[in-house]
Specification:
mainly alpha
Length: 392
């Protein structure tokens, strides 16, 4: 064989081997996708490197992102940059300004935010949740206070005795004044006349007969009315009524709220008084009517009406939000569990898509590696040919 042919043959063969080896080495990063077998024998190097070490790569990505790329210190540095806060303030101001020019109602905004639901469904769900939260909040607060364990007197603040005396006195005045107005009214006088007539009719014996003949009910009521009014206005009667109120209040305060509710209402024995009070509290708020009224409100009108107020507070609110975020940034980053998020995303990412992305970015480099393998193979083949010729 001529020397030039031997050298050329050695260079070509070595170059082909080097190029093909590098080409298959690159392909084996992604292929085959799954392990391959001949019978029960596992073919070595299957699956490819990246599919085989997918979980380890995902865990490494997660560690790198959490420990070096997205860290609390890095995020804090970004948040503390003046331009970041200026852009945040400008964004909030622009969003609020755009909102102030939108005439849609809360109902229309809600339908836009939840396009798969109608307003009636949104309203009913909101009412249900608000009523549930209200009832649970009332129950939790009352249970914490000792609804069926502590007497009502322990719920009152210190110094309630002095205020209760004043309250009882004012209540007595209101009651006696109301009774006086009712008594001196036309209906009150008619009632007193009827009572006087019934008393005279029920009188028996000689004095009863004489009273029926000589006593005029109207004149009797006219004579008695000033006396009754004078007694209602007297300090003694006022003090007596106030004392009675205080006495009853003292009795009630020795009972638990649960006992008072049961004694003052007609709830069935099997009904929990705490559930009853919680449901009544939720019903008193009237969430359906409030949500309906809220649905007709146009937020833009409120925003535009108070523009002079909120435009000055937005920079402060942004600063306060950034300060709050800065204080809790470490906890937020820990709670985000970036390692797990990145690991999960990488594990779920299709290998085919990952191969396409890598080849689109590094395709030229991979081809260069293939040709470099061919070049190195050719050089090795050339050196090998000269060595063989020298020795032989």
């Amino acid at each position: 064989m001529p020397i030039w042919l031997f050298i050329s043959f050695s260079v070509v063969v070595a170059a082909i081997v080097g190029g093909v080896t590098n080409h298959f080495a690159i392909k084996m990063l992604f292929h085959p996708r799954k392990a391959m077998y001949i019978g029960r024998w596992h073919i070595p190097f299957t699956p490819g490197l990246i599919p085989k070490r997918r979980e380890d790569i995902a865990a490494s990505f997660g560690d790198v992102v959490a420990e070096y790329l997205v860290t609390s210190d890095g995020l804090r540095t970004m948040l503390n940059r003046p331009d970041t806060r200026e852009k945040a303030t400008e964004t909030v101001l622009r969003m609020t300004q755009n909102w102030s020019e939108d005439d849609r109602t809360v109902k229309e905004w809600a339908v836009k935010l939840f396009p798969d639901k109608e307003w009636d469904e949104i309203r009913d769900q909101s009412v249900h949740r608000l009523q549930e939260w209200t009832a649970n909040g009332v129950k939790k607060w009352l249970e914490g206070k000792g609804w069926d364990e502590r007497p009502l007197i322990e719920w009152l603040p210190e110094g309630w005795e002095q205020s209760s005396a004043k309250w009882a006195d004012k209540t007595a005045v209101v009651m006696l004044t109301s009774f006086e107005k009712e008594l001196t009214s036309l209906q009150g006088q008619l009632l007193m006349t009827k009572l006087a007539k019934d008393v005279i009719d029920r009188a028996s014996g000689f004095f009863g007969a004489m009273a029926a003949i000589f006593v005029d009910e109207d004149k009797l009521v006219t004579k008695m009315m000033p006396v009754l009014v004078e007694q209602l206005r007297s300090p003694k009667v006022r003090a007596t009524v106030a004392g009675f109120i205080l006495s009853k209040l003292g009795e009630w305060l020795q009972e638990t709220p649960a006992q008072i509710v049961r004694s003052w209402t007609d709830i069935p024995e099997e009904t929990n008084s705490l559930d009853y009070i919680a449901s009544q509290a939720a019903a008193m708020i009237q969430w359906p009517k409030r949500i309906d009224r809220l649905g007709e409100i146009q937020p833009a009108h409120l925003v535009g009406k108070y523009e002079a107020v909120w435009s000055g507070y937005i920079p402060r609110a942004v600063e306060a939000a950034f300060a709050l975020l800065d204080r809790n940034l470490d906890a937020i980053v820990r709670a985000a569990r970036l390692q797990e998020v990145v690991r999960t995303q990488v594990e779920q990412f299709p290998i085919e898509r990952l191969e396409t992305i890598i080849l689109s970015v590094s395709g030229k480099e991979f081809r260069a590696i293939t040709w470099l393998g061919a070049l190195l193979g050719g050089i090795i083949g050339l050196v090998q040919a000269f060595v063989l010729l020298a020795v032989g």
